[in-house]
Write a structure and sequence with these properties.
The chain is mainly alpha-helical and 266 residues long. The protein has ten helices and seven strands. A hairpin with a 2-residue loop joins strand 4 and strand 5. The longest helix has 35 residues.
């Protein structure tokens, strides 16, 4: 088992979970600044937004998780702020980050969809990296797996997924790999295939949610609504539906504008 403490400095303990999340934020910010500059957007706006988005995302990710796991925290409120132990819900973080980013965009009159296309590859990259924090904390794993099945994975993953005398599916890894695939698709789309503002953002909503829906069904620690409904699957289905509708609507608008421009030039 991997020690969740990366470094101890006297009474101060630095957790691997925090180190991994910090790396995710750093690389995501660097990439977002690069993409913004390529898109003709002042990269300083990215730094200004990050100052708002990161704390908003962390707070909302924690609140989202705690709300659905209130029975676990109601008798020990100190654990509500113990984010280094895990328990950050990605969908909650997306909500918080979106609200903070939307407020900044509106205040500075920036192009919302264009900026969304620039920022969203950083989000999915951060999600891919952040899942390894779940690995360190032995959370977000799936149901029991056979030793034969786990023999296909590197030893360090097998050992970390051996919990209480039982192997478990490394669903954190499945989602991390899926997110990396989505990241590559979005980057190619941003620089090679983009036809209209919002295309990359809406594609993220569909692709990420598609993978999350199926992988969530394998997990044993899902946030539940009642006894049968997995919250993440409901949110994923909603995001897929909204993403498909928006993608079709804006693609149609783009075609209409292109046709109008061609007619005007003839």
């Amino acid at each position: 088992m991997i020690d969740p403490i990366a470094l101890s400095l006297g009474p101060i303990k630095i957790h691997w979970y925090g180190v991994i999340m910090g790396l995710a934020f750093f690389l995501g910010t660097y990439l977002a600044r690069y993409n913004a500059k390529r898109a003709g957007i002042d990269p300083d706006h990215v730094l200004n937004m990050v100052v708002l988005i990161i704390p908003a995302a962390i707070i909302c990710a924690r609140l989202y998780y705690v709300i659905f796991e209130w029975e676990q925290y109601k008798d020990n409120l100190f654990d509500v702020i113990a984010v280094w132990k895990g328990g950050l819900a990605i969908h909650g973080g997306l909500i918080g980050g979106f609200l903070a980013g939307a407020w900044y965009v509106r205040k500075h009159n920036l192009p919302f969809l264009k900026l969304g296309d620039v920022l969203i590859p950083s989000v999915i990259l951060g999600q891919a990296i952040g899942r390894w924090g779940n690995f360190i904390n032995q959370e977000a794993h799936g149901g029991p797996a056979t030793e034969e099945f786990m023999s296909h994975f590197p030893a360090f993953i097998r050992e970390q997924m051996y919990i209480g005398g039982q192997y478990y599916h490394p669903t954190f890894l499945y989602e991390s790999l899926w997110n990396l695939v989505v990241f590559v698709i979005l980057m190619v789309m941003l620089y090679r295939l983009k036809r209209f503002d919002g295309q990359v953002l809406f594609s993220y909503m569909i692709l990420y949610s598609l993978g999350r829906f199926f992988i969530e069904g394998m997990r044993t620690d899902s946030l539940m609504l009642g006894h049968t409904l997995r919250v993440a699957q409901l949110v994923s289905l909603s995001l897929i539906a909204v993403g498909v509708v928006l993608l079709l609507v804006y693609a149609r608008k783009s075609r209409q504008q292109s046709d109008h421009s061609q007619q005007s030039s003839e």
